[in-house]
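Homework-ish question, so no full write-ups if that breaks the rules, but can someone show me the predicted structure for this set?
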Amino acid sequence: MQRNTRQREAIRQVLRESGRPLSTQEVLEAAQKRVPGLGIATVYRTLHGLLEERQITVVELPGETPRYELAGKHHHHHFRCTVCGRVFEIENCPGNLERLAPPGFLAERHEIVLYGRCPGCPAG
Amino acid sequence: MQRNTRQREAIRQVLRESGRPLSTQEVLEAAQKRVPGLGIATVYRTLHGLLEERQITVVELPGETPRYELAGKHHHHHFRCTVCGRVFEIENCPGNLERLAPPGFLAERHEIVLYGRCPGCPAG
DNA sequence: GGCTATTTGATAATGAGATATCATTTTTGT
DNA sequence: ACAAAAATGATATCTCATTATCAAATAGCC
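A: Not a homework solution, just the prediction itself:
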């Protein structure tokens, strides 16, 4: 994970331009438009490398395979479209959710996921 | 899933008494105290049956296998202890989180997960 | 209590995501 | 351009949760 290959560049570019967290499959498909023949193994390898270097972070949603997004964003949450399955970023956060923890529980972190329909998906 | 077996009774009892969502493994271990020799296949089968009958519901957390809890509870969220891995119920909900969705997005549902330390786990 | 269909438990099979392997290709320093 | 080291791609393998299989046990009805 030290050399600058077309594959690695393509994958970074894809993540940079997506604006939303992508699964390995999404990364593969998007990056293959830049590097035809790109293999899934390279996607896994590269994502691990980028994770190691803290250039990207993992986004995990219930019951889904991990997605990856650029690191360094400020605190945010996610919206999953129940029609197309894509996940988007949400800027807002109600904040201070730790207060929801019952007495005796010490909350250190929280996650919020909204589910619904994204602008690209017409009502069914 | 029509007969009342000791196994089925034990599994329902375990879920009823736990007060928190349990994974299949947790159900297995707890129910084996009531029915030694209980097999994991029976746990899966019974949980599916109870789901079908809407007696229980699934609780999915990011990166974890499904957990199960009694159905019919009012809207609530969950707390996962990062030390022992157990998941607890949270009564409170800030409410109206759908407003966090960006323009054009229609949120229909939300999930909140708090992470931290439960009363049973001393600070490390 | 005995009969029959259902359920159980042990374990093999499955499925999906992720990882390992390795010959070939590519990058990079000289 | 050359050589050495690293990365790639095809694919085999692994992992682990879940499901299927089937002989043996059991619930429920007479």
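Now go work out the reasoning yourself. Hint: Chain A has a mean pLDDT of 95.
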